[in-house]
Amino acid sequence: MSDGPGSDAHADETRDDAPRDSRRMFFALWPDAETRVRLARATKDAVRRSGGRPIAKDRFHVTVAFLGNLTPAGFEIASAVPPIPVGAFTLVLDTIGAFASSRTLWLGSRSVPPALVELERRLWEALAAKGFIREERIYRPHVTLARRARVVDEEIVRVEWPVAELALVESLPDGRNVHYEPLRSWPL
């Protein structure tokens, strides 16, 4: 897990002694309503064929940096990091894949835009300078489509997503699911 200032794993000046005050947070690309509809339409058959539990279209996003549980002080530190001015770009989502170990069906890009690579790199550099620790894995931008899914070989209609901002999002429990609440956003 990625721990940073105010996370449960660090005891520094940003840590709050009451873990109940911590909030699960991440930076993400957050699509507009029209893009969400296009993503859902383009992937409907693949999700159905996967036999997985579909993710509601209002939860579609691309995580750029997962922060973990933050205290209010940690949240303020993270919020002070953006903006990261890489400029607006288009993310073309055109390939279905799966993480076999977690049985997660996802939609990704055959060619990740250089601006997204730069955004992720520069965001983590700024977060690391504030004490956040990055997970040890290769960044693979994707939209999660279904859980408990089988791998499918499905051609889809490509979706072009105009990306112009970065959002700080909170992950909130919602029964058996999770609700995501964008709290702040910054232009790219």
List the helices and strands and how they pair.
Elements: E1 23-29, H1 33-50, E2 53-54, E3 62-70, H2 72-79, E4 89-93, E5 95-99, E6 104-108, H3 114-129, E7 142-147, E8 159-163, E9 165-174, E10 177-187
Antiparallel strand pairs: 1-3, 1-9, 2-7, 4-8, 5-6, 6-7, 9-10
Please outline what is shown here:
By secondary structure, the protein is of the alpha+beta class.
Name the descriptors:
Cyclic Phosphodiesterase, Chain: A; 188 residues; 3 helices; 4-stranded antiparallel sheet; 22% helix; 10 strands; alpha+beta
Write the CATH architecture name.
Alpha-Beta Complex
SSE order:
EHEEHEEEHEEEE
Helix content: 10-25%
Q: End-to-end span in angstroms?
A: 27 Å
Q: Count every beta strand, where a strand is a DSSP E run of 2 or more residues.
A: 10
Structural class: alpha+beta
Q: Return the domain count.
A: 1
CATH homologous superfamily?
Cyclic phosphodiesterase
Coarse morphology: globular
Tell me the β content.
25-35%
Main β-sheet: number of strands, strand sense, barrel status? 4 strands, antiparallel
Widest β-sheet, arrangement of strands: 3-1-9-10
CATH class placement: Alpha Beta
How large is the count of helical segments? 3
Mean of residue pLDDT values:
89
Radius of gyration (CA) equals 17 Å
Under CATH, the topology is which?
Cyclic Phosphodiesterase, Chain: A
Low-pLDDT sequence parts: 6-18
